[in-house]
Design goal:
- Helix content is about 35%, strand content about 20%.
- With about 400 residues, it is α/β, with parallel strands linked by helices.
- It has an eight-stranded mixed β-sheet, sandwiched between helices. The protein has a three-stranded antiparallel β-sheet with strand order 11-12-13.
- A hairpin with a 7-residue loop joins strand 7 and strand 8.
- Helix 15 crosses helix 16.
- The two termini are about 35 Å apart.
- The relative contact order is 0.15.
Length: about 400
């Protein structure tokens, strides 16, 4: 990859993930994340940008144009007798589990294991804060990422956000923070943070670790407009918005001054299909977050699934494996060992992007002369017929999404 590029090249070629890490990387304060066409993208102030003077900090930290995932995962986690899975990468253990606090388990996505583990680490003084995301009080349809310093703030940030989340401002906030933090994000967020730490020792010194949430793809902000439209609600009237609450899969809940809407997850999420899926998500090869110390997600298969909530968790860092064991001994969480093949079985529908869609997209988009991200992972063989079917279906659905929002 040409290191002479800046972030504008990434945006112009449709490779931006909207992760926001480029904003803090710019030494000239020339980049600001803005909402454009229902996604978050960096806007560059050309008058301030020093790219013509050789600066390309923004490009160096950007995960959008690719990253050596396999090489870096081996670097961080490959020492000793670790196990390796083609989708998970190096790991020391896989588990199912949940929070022993019924309220956390019931109101968080799946079993509340991520939130409860953060609370344990915070109250045990292992960390002083956690970078998490909640819906903004001033604008309940948009997200806000911040450093949570209390149990209450972590609980306020529980559950899924199926919309753009940008971590702009986080790097600077972490560097000025007095103490150690865990950074929670999607796999692409973690990729950007890993790139950042290689260039910024002050930032790395304050990071205790990275926690990733499994991700098969995201949705743009038009998905929220669509969901409100289906419920005959104007987005501006929304006082509180939650994608998942009250149980394992849970309910989308929308609160206005006049009514409370509650819709089962299966009912609303399936209706979104790929109408609002960003193009860049089609190239994702990192469902689990291979560069995270610990990754958390669902496990909606028998015999693990139940109506209250169960998580699966992949542990790559021996240190955090020890902390998880300590949390179980303290009766903060409950853990049961499970094979990586079971975790993959629970995610097989989401992993189809990595196994079928992505290999075709890389080949076909290159054939069309378009830029694609560069990874060092060996992809599956291209399944031309199935891949083409997915590509056509996805392209058609995205076109429909422009009209139904």
């Amino acid at each position: 990859m040409n290191s002479g590029h800046n972030i504008r090249w990434v945006v112009d070629n449709g490779l931006c993930l909207g992760c926001g890490v480029c904003e803090d990387a710019c030494p000239m304060n020339a980049i600001h994340i803005v909402e454009t066409k229902a996604i978050n993208v960096p806007h560059i102030d050309s008058a301030k940008c020093a790219h013509d003077k050789g600066c390309n900090h923004c490009f160096k930290v950007c995960p959008g144009h690719g990253i050596d995932i396999e090489n870096k995962s081996q670097k961080y986690f490959g020492a000793g007798g670790v196990m390796v899975d083609p989708y998970i990468g190096p790991y020391v253990g896989c588990y199912t589990g949940w929070s022993q606090d019924h309220g956390v388990r019931y109101h968080a996505a799946s079993g509340g294991l991520l939130s409860q583990f953060l609370i344990f680490l915070l109250e045990s003084n292992v960390i002083d804060g956690a970078v998490v995301t909640r819906f903004s009080e001033s604008n309940p349809m948009r997200t806000q990422t911040f450093i949570a310093k209390t149990r209450e703030e972590i609980i306020d940030s529980m559950s899924s956000k199926y919309c753009p989340v940008s971590l702009n401002g986080v790097v600077n906030e972490v560097m000025s923070f007095h103490g150690k933090v865990i950074i929670v994000g999607l796999p692409c967020h973690i990729q950007g943070m890993r790139k950042t730490e290689e260039l910024n020792e002050k930032f790395r010194a304050n990071v205790a670790g990275y926690f990733s949430i499994y991700c098969s793809s995201n949705r743009n902000f038009d998905a929220q407009k669509y969901l409100c439209k289906k419920q005959n609600i104007k987005p501006g009237d929304v006082k509180k918005f939650t994608y998942r609450d009250n149980g394992c899969l849970g309910f989308m809940k929308i609160l206005t001054d006049k009514k409370v809407i509650s819709v089962p997850f299966i009912e609303y999420y399936e209706s979104l299909r790929s109408y609002f899926k960003p193009r860049r998500c089609s190239f994702c090869v990192d469902h689990y977050g291979m560069l995270a110390d610990v990754s958390f997600g669902d496990i909606h298969i028998d015999p693990y699934f139940n109506e209250i909530g169960v998580n699966s968790v992949v542990v790559r860092s021996p240190a955090f494996h020890d902390y998880l064991v300590q949390a179980q001994r303290a009766e903060s969480i409950l853990l049961n060992a499970v094979k990586s093949t079971e975790v993959n079985r629970s995610q097989q529908m989401m992993l189809k992007n990595q196994k079928i869609s992505a290999p075709f997209y890389f080949k076909f988009e290159r054939f069309l002369g378009r830029k694609v991200p560069i990874y060092d992972l060996k992809l599956s063989e291209v399944r031309w017929l199935k891949g083409a079917r997915y590509w056509l279906s996805y392209t058609f659905q995205r076109w429909i999404g422009r009209w139904i929002k």
